[in-house]
Structures are given as structure tokens and as C-alpha cells.
UniProtKB/TrEMBL annotation:
<keyword id="KW-0547">Nucleotide-binding</keyword>
<comment type="function">
    <text>Allows the formation of correctly charged Gln-tRNA(Gln) through the transamidation of misacylated Glu-tRNA(Gln) in organisms which lack glutaminyl-tRNA synthetase. The reaction takes place in the presence of glutamine and ATP through an activated gamma-phospho-Glu-tRNA(Gln).</text>
</comment>
<dbReference type="GO" id="GO:0030956">
    <property type="term" value="C:glutamyl-tRNA(Gln) amidotransferase complex"/>
</dbReference>
<dbReference type="InterPro" id="IPR000120">
    <property type="entry name" value="Amidase"/>
</dbReference>
<dbReference type="InterPro" id="IPR023631">
    <property type="entry name" value="Amidase_dom"/>
</dbReference>
<feature type="active site" description="Charge relay system">
    <location>
        <position position="154"/>
    </location>
</feature>
<dbReference type="InterPro" id="IPR020556">
    <property type="entry name" value="Amidase_CS"/>
</dbReference>
<comment type="subunit">
    <text>Heterotrimer of A, B and C subunits.</text>
</comment>
<comment type="similarity">
    <text>Belongs to the amidase family. GatA subfamily.</text>
</comment>
<keyword id="KW-0648">Protein biosynthesis</keyword>
<dbReference type="GO" id="GO:0005524">
    <property type="term" value="F:ATP binding"/>
</dbReference>
<dbReference type="Pfam" id="PF01425">
    <property type="entry name" value="Amidase"/>
</dbReference>
<feature type="domain" description="Amidase">
    <location>
        <begin position="24"/>
        <end position="467"/>
    </location>
</feature>
<feature type="active site" description="Acyl-ester intermediate">
    <location>
        <position position="178"/>
    </location>
</feature>
<dbReference type="InterPro" id="IPR004412">
    <property type="entry name" value="GatA"/>
</dbReference>
<feature type="active site" description="Charge relay system">
    <location>
        <position position="79"/>
    </location>
</feature>
<keyword id="KW-0808">Transferase</keyword>
Length: 478
């Protein structure tokens, strides 16, 4: 096995035993990037020198007999929406093409403290707006399983980088499914923690009441290690929670017998669900019934039909507010004009792509006088109903199982001209986002060479249970 194909746990154990060095491990990932990223296009920036320097520091610590953290010397990639001090941070947009972050996000700072090795910043749909990574201001990313297909989005660069062996784990953000959906399409584990479990500080905002920091891993064991490192309260971020963390690496080993499983009938009745995906998910549910010794029960989430429409009113409204700061004055692209208004208009017209402009216009419209009550206020009321659906369901069950995506990865260009069809790619992930719940996607089968993902949704701040069930499923799947 190549070094870049190891899991975090395998690589850590081998580093401690001095079977290879952190420089060799990092070099293996950098070599793979050099070899295959011209076809995949997962990275916007590769941080070669910084990565090797950090790996060398870890090797020195090991040589001195110092103990190291589970993530020390382990190469990772970060979605290019995380600010990393003194490194270019573009959010996949021309308006920030040359922006050098002056400070560090809490998540990358926590990983830096653990001596993790950043190998680069990955491509994304511009400002995380998209489901295919085709809306990047620079170039589309390709799915490593089939280069003619999308990797999902908006964190498609991170998912593709991990699937291609460019790193051992990767950071992403999930607003309406932007980690879970690409994880499913690229055949890796993707975790969206509870809203507030991880800090948003230093991550470029899209929709502040929905944005959640998460990550991609090769298996659940690695996912538990990463969550332990990045989760927790942050005094710099007002929405982060001080609810105590669990010891996830130990929790995943505990018994799952008797766990109550819920299957939302509405998810399996929605139009557009590929029959092959449905069959694979049904097989995964049957296996989980065997593992838990519990029969899955059908539950109802009656407002599922309204979740997509609700999300696409709330999210653009928050986008229009958050993106008002990009005016060409303090930072980013600045186009000169005869007056201030002209400079604003030219900078934003040239800096933003079509999807970003579409969402700003939609959001501004729904917040405007005469439409706020008709659209935005009603959407907030529906969001409350979606959350109540989950609250009622969790009185009966411990976890909810569903498909992650209605189809496997679709072809590049297939949906880019039809925004509504593209938005429907997130139909199974959006409800949990609206409710602020933890959810993960893990591989459960394939259609040809294309992966299919199983989604496990849990109660607020109960990441340990969805990780535990995912871990047991991985161990017993075959």
C-alpha cells in the first residue's frame, strides 16, 4: 500500500514506530497531487514548501522522543473557504482571486496546534454556492471515479482530493449538503456536525444560520479522531456551543444493539430517486437491522416537501447580506470608475459569477419591502416546522437513515444550465441542515464504478451515535 493510501490511524501508528517519516508521508501525497491533479483539478493552491517544513518539524519531535498527537504529521487539505494566515484564500471566486488571509480560522489553528500538515487549498463552487463544483470561478473539478462526472459540491475539491489519494483527510463546509453530497459521489465518509459544534470563525460566510464546518475521512475511525481535534466552544464565534464533547474514538466502539432506527417514508417517495440507489440503500438498511438487532420503523417527516423551497429562500437572503461586504474597497477585486457607485457595480459585476449573482438577486428580492412577509418570514416559519418534524421523530427513534443523494454523480455540464434540477441534488441533505442536526454520509455500494452514499442523521450534539452506527456498519458491511 502506498503511504498516501493509509488511514490516519495507520499513518499515526507507523510514524510513532518510525516505519517512515512525516516528510515521506507528505511527499507521497504531494507526488500524487503532481501526478494526477492536472486531470482532477482538486486544488486551487498547493502549499508544498509549508507542508514539507511542518512535516520536518514533526520528524524532529519524533526523533527527540516527544509524544505526538494523532494528527501530527498527517497531510490534509482545506476547502479554500478557510482562512489560513499568509496563504491565498479565494472562496473559489474571482473577486478574491489574489486575497491573502491575514489571520487563521479556528479550525485550521486547532489543526496547526496538533502539528497537522496542510498540503493545499481545494476548489469549490464559488462562495460554496453549488452542488457540482462547476460554479468555481476558476475551473471545474472532476470525479476521480469517472473524470467525465462531477465530484459533487460545494466541497467537491476536498472530496475529490481525498478520493484521489492527495491527502489523508480534508476539511469542508456543509450549508445544505455540501459535505455529505460530495462524500457520497466520491465514495468517502463526510461528516456534518451539529450546527455550533464546530467554530465558523475564519471561514468565509455564505449563510450564517446554516453554515457548518465539517470534514471528509477515509473511514469512521478517522472521522472520530478529526472531530475530537476540531470541535468545541470558541470565544471568537458567537454561535459555537459549549456543550461538552464526547470521547469519540472510544464512543464508536460501544455497542449498537437495540438502537432504534427510523426510515422517513417521504424520502423514499420523492420523485427523482434513482431505483438503483433505492435498492442499495434498502440493502444497507437491512444490514443495519442485523447489526442492531432492531427492526427499522417507518417515520414521517411531513414537511419534507417544503424543505427545498424553504432553504432556497433563507439561504439566498443570508447570502445577499453576507456578500454585501465585497465592494472592491477594502480588499479583493477593485475596478476603477468615475464615481463610488460605478466602482461598486463594476467590481461586483466582474468579480462574481452567474450563480452568486442569481442568489444575491433572489435573496435581496425576498428581503425587500413588500416581499419579506410573503417569502422570508414564511420560510422561517416552515423551517421551524421542519425542525419540529425531527423533534417528533426522535421521540420514537435514535437515528434516521436515508439516501444521501437521489442519484450517483452526474456528468459535467448535465445540470449546469438548469438551476432547479441542480438544487434538487441536495433534496435529502437540506432538511437536516435546516434543523441544525448532525449527519454523515458513508459509502454503501456502487452503480458501476460510481459510489452511493448512506446518510445517517442524529439528534443535536449526538455525533457519537451516528459515528458509532457508521463504524459498526463499516465493520460488518460485507
Amino acid at each position: 500500500m502506498k503511504l498516501n493510501e493509509l488511514t490516519i490511524k495507520q499513518a499515526h501508528d507507523s510514524l510513532v514506530k518510525k516505519e517512515f517519516t512525516a516528510v515521506e508521508l507528505t511527499g507521497s501525497c504531494l507526488d500524487e497531487i503532481k501526478k494526477t491533479d492536472q486531470q482532477i483539478r482538486a486544488f486551487i493552491t498547493v502549499t508544498l514548501e509549508q507542508a514539507l517544513a511542518k512535516a520536518k518539524q514533526v520528524d524532529q519531535k519524533i526523533a527527540q522522543g516527544d509524544s505526538i498527537s494523532d494528527l501530527a504529521g498527517i497531510p490534509y487539505a482545506a476547502k479554500d473557504i478557510f482562512c489560513v494566515a499568509n496563504i491565498k484564500t479565494t472562496a473559489g471566486s474571482k473577486i478574491l482571486e489574489n486575497f491573502i488571509a491575514p489571520y487563521e480560522s479556528t479550525t485550521t489553528a486547532r489543526l496547526k496546534k496538533q502539528d497537522a500538515v496542510l498540503v493545499g487549498k481545494t476548489n469549490l463552487d464559488e462562495f460554496a454556492m453549488g452542488s457540482s463544483t462547476e460554479n468555481s470561478g476558476f475551473f471545474p473539478t472532476h470525479n476521480p471515479h469517472d473524470l467525465e462526472r462531477v465530484p459533487g459540491g460545494s466541497s467537491g475539491g476536498s472530496a475529490a482530493a481525498l478520493a484521489a489519494g492527495h491527502c489523508l483527510y480534508a476539511l469542508g463546509t456543509d450549508t445544505g449538503g455540501s459535505i455529505r453530497q460530495p462524500a457520497a459521489m466520491c465514495g468517502v465518509v463526510g461528516v456534518k456536525p451539529t450546527y455550533g459544534r464546530t467554530s465558523r470563525y475564519g471561514v468565509i460566510a455564505m449563510a450564517s444560520s446554516l453554515d457548518t464546518i465539517g470534514y471528509f475521512a477515509k473511514n469512521i475511525e478517522d472521522a472520530a479522531i478529526i472531530l475530537q481535534a476540531v470541535a468545541g466552544d470558541d470565544e471568537k464565534e458567537s454561535t459555537s456551543s459549549n456543550i461538552a464533547l464526547d470521547h469519540y474514538s472510544e464512543e464508536i466502539k460501544k455497542d449498537v444493539r437495540g438502537l432504534k432506527i427510523g426510515i422517513p417514508q417521504e424520502y423514499f417517495e420523492l420523485e427523482g430517486l434513482d431505483p438503483e440507489v433505492k435498492k442499495i440503500i434498502a440493502k444497507a438498511i437491512k444490514k443495519i437491522e442485523e447489526i442492531t438487532g432492531s427492526r427499522a420503523r417507518e417515520i414521517s417527516l411531513p414537511h419534507t416537501d417544503y424543505a427545498l423551497a424553504c432553504y432556497y429562500i433563507i439561504m439566498p437572503a443570508e447570502v445577499s447580506s453576507n456578500l454585501a461586504r465585497y465592494d472592491g474597497i477594502k480588499y479583493g477585486l477593485s475596478e476603477k470608475s468615475q464615481d463610488l457607485l460605478g466602482s461598486y457595480l463594476k467590481s461586483r459585476a466582474q468579480g462574481f459569477g452567474a450563480e452568486v449573482k442569481r442568489r444575491i438577486i433572489l435573496g435581496t428580492y425576498s428581503l425587500s419591502y413588500g416581499y419579506y412577509d410573503a417569502y422570508y418570514k414564511k420560510a422561517l416559519a416552515v423551517r421551524t416546522l421542519v425542525k419540529k418534524d425531527f423533534d417528533q421523530a426522535f421521540k420514537l427513534v435514535d437515528v434516521i437513515l436515508a439516501p444521501t443523494t437521489p442519484t450517483p454523480a452526474f456528468k459535467l455540464g448535465e445540470k449546469i444550465g438548469d438551476p432547479l434540477q441542480m438544487y434538487a441534488s441536495d433534496i435529502f441533505t437540506i432538511p437536516a441542515s435546516l434543523a441544525g442536526l448532525p449527519a454523515l454520509s458513508l459509502p454503501c455500494g456502487q452503480i458501476g464504478q460510481l459510489p452511493v452514499g448512506l446518510q445517517i442523521i442524529g439528534q443535536q450534539f449526538d455525533e457519537k451515535t451516528i459515528l458509532r452506527l457508521g463504524h459498526y456498519y463499516e465493520q460488518n458491511r460485507k
